Amino acid sequence: MKITSAKVIICAPSRNFVTLKIETDEGLTGIGDATLNGRELAVASYLTDHVIPCLIGRDPQQIEDIWQYLYKGAYWRRGPVTMSAIAGVDTALWDIKAKAANMPLYQLLGGKSRTGVMVYGHANGKDITQTVEEVLRYKEMGYKAIRAQSGVPGLEKVYGVGRGTMFYEPADADLPSEHDWSTEKYLRHTPELFEKVRAAVGPDIHLLHDAHHRLTPIEAARLGKDLEPFRLFWLEDTTPAENQESFRLIRQHTTTPLAVGEIFNTIWDCKDLIQNQLIDYIRTTVVHAGGITHLRRIADLAALYQVRTGSHGATDLSPVCMGAALNFDLWVPNFGIQEYMRHTDETDAVFPHAYSFKDGYMHPGEAPGHGVTIDEALAAKYPYKRAYLPVNRLQHDGTLTNW
Ligand code: GCO
Ligand code: MG
User: Known InterPro entries for this protein (predicted)?
Assistant: First the structure.
C-alpha cells in the first residue's frame, strides 16, 4: 500500500478544527485531528509545507517507522506544534490500518478491557447555587463523574464558567480577552463550593475540579487539604508543571488525587511526575501527545507506577480525537476516566461518528477504523475564523499570570 495524497482541512463549525486526511492507492483513507487551540494555522503549515511532501509514496502500514521518521528526522523534537502534526498523521494511519483489517481500532490495540469508557462532564455556574443545579442536572443525564467549576465572588470572569450551559468554549474572541484573578478569593470560595456540591449530590458521584495552573505549589497543597473532606476524584492542573519537581511539595501535604498533563506533548514532560508517583492521573491525549503511538508509550510507563489515564477531551479536541481516544480508552489497561465536553450539533454534523454516550459511559462503536469521518462539503461551508484563548491578570495590580 502507498500514500498517494494527503491534505489539511481547516473548518470552523462553531470553532476551529484542523484535520489531516490521508489517501492511499488502495482506496482506503484515514483522518487525524491536528487542532491546537489558538495556534491552528501553525500546525496546518507544519503539515502542508513540511510533512505532507515527505509522506507521499510511503507505506501507510509502517506507522512506527513514519512516527520515528517525523520525530527524529526533523531534528527539532517535541513541542505542541510538532507533536500535534505528528498526531494528525499517526491517527490517520491507525485509522487506515484498522480499516484495512476491517476492525474497530480498539481491536487492533489489543481488544476491549472494559464494557464502556467512564466520562466526566462539565458543570459550570456563575455562583455556587447555579453550579449545584448544574451538577444535579448532569447527574440526571446519567453522568457518574462531574467536574464542578464556579464563578468566584469579586472576580469578573473566571476559568470554566461558560457562556451557555452545555457548550463551554474558552476560545472566545478574535484577539485574546482579559480575565482577572485573585488566588485569595478563589481559595476562600472553592472549599465552600465543594461542601455544597457534595452535600447535594451524595457520596456516589465522582467529583472533579480544574485549577487551571493558577496556584503555587504551597497554595495547591492548601487547596488539596481543604478539599479532602469532599473526596474528589481528582484535582487538576493546580500548578504549572514545567518543573515536574514542584508536585512533590503538593504531594507531601495532601491525599487529594492529582491530575495533570493536558498541555504536555511527550513522555518527557511527565516522566518524573510518573516515576516519582507525584500524580495519580495523566491527562495527555491523542492529538497533543503524538497520536496513539506515543500515548500508548506514556500509558505503559504510567502503568508501572499505578498512574491511570484521564485524557483531555475539551471541545477544542475534535470528534476525530474523541473517536481515537475512546478506542484507546476501551483498550488501555490502566484507564482512569475520559473527559467529555459535548460538541455542538454543527460540529457533530461535519464529523459523523460511531461513538455514543449512555448512562455516563461512552463507547467508540464498531465501525472499522476509529469510527469518525468528515463531511468535506459541509466543512467547506465553515471557513477558519481566528479565535484566541483569554489571558489572565492579577486583579490587584494587572500582572500577567497563568490562564
Ligand atoms: C479542560 C481544559 C480546557 C482547556 C482548553 C484549552 O480541562 O478541559 O482545561 O478547557 O482550557 O482545552 O484549549
Ligand atoms: Mg484542564
Answer: D-mannonate_dehydratase-like, DgoD-like, Enolase-like_C_sf, Enolase-like_N, Enolase_C-like, MAND, Mandel_Rmase/mucon_lact_enz_CS, Mandelate_racemase_C
